[in-house]
Amino acid sequence: MIIEGSTAVITGAASGIGQATAFDLASRGAKAIAMVDITDNVADVTAEMNKKEGREVGRAFQGDVTDAAFRKEVYDAMCGDDGVVNICVPSAGIFRDRLSVMLDKETGEPDIYPVEMFHQVLEVNLVAPVYWALELVARMAHNRKVNGKKKWHPDETVQGTIVFIGSVASQGNKGQISYSSTKAALEGAAQTLMKESMFHGVRTAVIHPGFVDTPILQGMPEGYLEKYVLPDIQLGRLIRPEELSDAICFLISNSAVSGELWCDAGWHPPAGT
């Protein structure tokens, strides 16, 4: 689909992949972009983007992506002002890494990964992105219905595109039981939506980044990147957010590309580390 003139919703837009994607879409002519983030600096990031573009392309929305009322508020605002939303990149994500089972060094008592932490990661990394995507599909379907359109036809242009942010960790990675589980599950959700949403003219894709130089990596154990990651990356460095955003825009703009795109710089979770 054509990015120029489109309306987009980006979660996690105040930093990392989300911010880079929003800036990239704006530079390619997107008409309006909802900049969604839980942090209060989303307003400053949005103002920076608008200044750079010389137009009011971005609108800042601060809130929790797991809040259904907040999600509806964002879509109501964007659909009301700018028609339908054409692009959704739900990139907000967290991880809470530790071994699945740990033993007390003195007593030998097992300590199982806290279920509360698992649910927290599940809500942010799986449930939230799926429902931000479903909101786009639902509103696109409604818009087509009220305009007398039924099943999308190939003679039409693609109406919308969803790009989920997967991860190489979807294949499994030591110390990431909750994060890896949610990213693997996101693949299944995306595959299902691929089969359903095209009825309404909406494409769905998944991009699987490797280790990207974003603030989320600050939560990694000290020395992990240097010991287990960087030596096995072909580039010899972390992936830059703008490299990911370029790949995301490629997925959006080239309608022949669907399914999954791996942007891992050659790194995959090694066995036994």
Summarize the structure.
The protein is α/β, with parallel strands linked by helices and 273 residues long.
Strand order of the largest sheet: 3-2-1-4-7-8-9
Beta fraction: 15-25%
Examine the coordinates and then state which fold CATH places here, giving the name of the CATH topology.
Answer: Rossmann fold
Rg: 19 Å
Helix and strand string, N-terminal first?
EHEHEHEEEHEHEHHE
* Mean pLDDT metric: 91
Shape: globular
CATH architecture: 3-Layer(aba) Sandwich
Percentage of residues assigned to helices = 40-55%
Instruction: Write down the CATH class.
Output: Alpha Beta
Sheet with the most strands, sense and barrel status: 7 strands, parallel
The chain-level structural class is alpha/beta
CATH homologous superfamily (4th level) name:
NAD(P)-binding Rossmann-like Domain
Q: How many beta strands in the DSSP annotation?
A: 9
Distance between the termini: 41 Å
Number of helices: 7
**Overall structural domain count:** 1
**Which segments are poorly predicted (pLDDT under 50) over 5 or more consecutive residues?**
none
Written account of the structure:
The chain is α/β, with parallel strands linked by helices and about 270 residues long. It has a single domain, classed as Rossmann fold. The protein is built from 7 helices and 9 strands; from the N terminus they run E-H-E-H-E-H-E-E-E-H-E-H-E-H-H-E. The mean pLDDT is about 90.
Structural key phrases:
two-stranded antiparallel sheet, Rossmann fold, 273 residues, 7 helices, alpha/beta, globular
Helices and strands in order, then pairings?
Blueprint (H helix, E strand, L loop, with lengths): L6 E5 L4 H12 L4 E6 L4 H12 L4 E5 L5 H15 L4 E4 L10 E3 L6 E3 L2 H32 L13 E6 L11 H21 L4 E8 L14 H6 L11 H13 L5 E5 L10
Parallel strand pairs: 1-2, 1-4, 2-3, 4-7, 7-8, 8-9
Antiparallel strand pairs: 5-6
